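does this look right to u?? flavin-adenine dinucleotide version
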Amino acid sequence: MYAEVHHIDRLSPDVLRVVLTGGTLDQFEGAAATDAYINARFVPAGSPVAVPFSQDDLDSVPAEFRPRPRRFTIREWEPEQQMLTIDFVAHGDAGFAGSWAQRAQPGDRLQFDGAGGSYRPSPDVDWHLFVGDESAIGAIGASLQSLEPDARAVVFAVVEQPGYEIDLPSQADVDLHWLYRAHAADSENWVAATVAETALPDGAFDVFVHGEAAEVRAVRRHLAADRGVDLSSASISPYWRRRHSDEDWRKVKRQWMTDQSQDL
Ligand SMILES: Cc1cc2nc3c(=O)[nH]c(=O)nc-3n(C[C@H](O)[C@H](O)[C@H](O)COP(=O)(O)OP(=O)(O)OC[C@H]3O[C@@H](n4cnc5c(N)ncnc54)[C@H](O)[C@@H]3O)c2cc1C
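got this back:
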């Protein structure tokens, strides 16, 4: 499946909203999950590969020019308008996906499969907890937008510095805490430390925590150890790892998850 860039909006200095349309989107089914994601294939700059491509087309292509798989959250799917919205972190020139979004122009094509995904805010809880960085802003934004007016949410959203906040519309009662990476004292525990020192509402809550692996792991540990969260029903996963490309991260992720499961 593939689609073409319709337009791009800058949501903050380092988050780009890419809206796709056309191509074979008429076959796209979307997903009910608010963390639904696509498996996209990013063609490296200078590659002879053109979208759409088949696996056979790639056999004769040197490895460095083959499309790289990356997962991206569906911020919004509008079937009637055939518009698919994805919010990309523009994290510099390293890698393939963020840099693709930074140089994307209307008419550029993106090939993908999907959608996967599993979280949707539970209607059976008193309130919802969200913790995430810019990579999770699409899923948190879609989740907040799905909430009913009588719902309540507490959000801890990590961005680079003041001025990098992103509009997160919702009808619900949302208590939004912006966390600034530039103010962080240490790089692995600071998000968990901020959550730990914040008074949270009483009552039953569901949990959505996604973003940088070490930050997610520390929040997971805090929620289970100090807040009594049942990890089996919480949506918690590392979306990316600092200083690791997605390829390098996938090589060590299984061991990371095993180690993480032994934290608690
Ligand atoms: C289910 C799922 C959904 C996701 N949804 C989104 C989404 O909607 N939007 C989004 O932007 N990301 C999302 N991600 C994360 C995204 O897939 C990764 O960040 C991916 O590594 C980006 O690929 P890249 O080619 O740009 O960089 P890579 O080639 O993977 O990495 C190059 C360098 O950039 C660093 N890097 C990677 N991501 C970031 C980042 N976010 N901030 C700072 N540095 C980074 C790496 O550590 C590495 O040093 C999602 C991940 C998963 C698993």
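The helical segments are 55-58, 97-103, 137-146, 190-196, 213-227, 246-261. idk if thats expected tbh
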